Amino acid sequence: MIHWLYERALMQGITLLPSHICFMITERDMQATPGKLAQVIMWCRAVNLQFARSKGETTGDRESGRCAIKSVMIHISTPDPARMLPCLPAIREVARQSRLSLHIGELTEVRGKGIEVCVAIGKSGRDEIASCIRKMAHDKIPPAEVTEQTFEQYLTFPYTPDLVIKTGGYHLTDFLIWQAVYSELFFSDVNWEWFRKTDFLRALRDYQARVRRFGK
C-alpha cells in the first residue's frame, strides 16, 4: 500500500515527459530477467495514459503523441549477439503492445503496432558511423556536401533520445554515440533485474528538473 502511494506521488509530480527514451542494458541483464522488457514498455504506456488524464487531454491528443513518450530504444550490449537468440521470444512479446523494430546481426524485423520500440542487440556506435561513411562514399557524395543533416540520413538508428537510462552503474557503451551527444543521462544504482516502476518514475522526475542546453 505504501509503495503504491509513493508511486502515485511520484507520478503526480511529473509535469514533463521525454519524447524519446533509451535504456542501456547488458546481455546478463536480459538473460536474468527476459520478461522485464515487456514490463518496462507497459510502464511507458501507463505513464502516457496517466499523464494525459492528469492534463485533461482528449483521446485525440494521446493518439497524436503530444506530451507523451513516443519511442523507446533498448540497447543490449553483448560481444556475441548469437548468445541472445534464446531471449528473442521474450523480446518479440513486446510487439503485443507496441510497434517493435528488432535488430540483431544482419536481421531486422518489424512487427506489432503502438508505441515505437526499437531493440538493438550488440550494435556499436562506431560501426554505425563507419557504415555511414561507406554508404556516402558508395553514393559518391562530394565532401563539400557532407553536413550533419546529410550524415544523419545514413544512420541506421535515426533516434535522438531525450533521456538515456543506464541501470546498474555508470558504464556506457558507444551505442548512439552520435545521436545521444546532447541527451540527458540518468544512472541508476539499481540493477535491471531489480529496476522498478518507482525507479523509472524517479528517472522521469530527474529529467524534468534539468535544464537542457544541447551543448551550449
Write the element-wise H/E pattern from the N-terminal end onward.
HEHHHEHEEEHHEEH
In DSSP terms, counting alpha (H) and pi (I) runs of 4 or more, how many helices?
8
Name the CATH homologous superfamily: Decaprenyl diphosphate synthase-like
Low-confidence region ranges: 61-65
* Shape call: globular
Task: Give the distance, in angstroms, between the N- and C-terminal Cα atoms.
Answer: 44 Å
How many structurally independent domains?
1
Q: What is the overall pLDDT average?
A: 88
- What fraction strand? 15-25%
Q: Which percent range fits the helix content?
A: 25-40%
CATH fold category name: Undecaprenyl pyrophosphate synthetase
Q: In this structure, how is the largest beta sheet organized?
A: 7 strands, mixed
Gyration radius (Cα, Å) is 18 Å
Strand order of the largest sheet: 4-3-5-2-1-6-7
**SSE class:** alpha/beta
DSSP strand tally: 7
- Give the name of the CATH architecture: 3-Layer(aba) Sandwich
Task: Please give the CATH class.
Answer: Alpha Beta
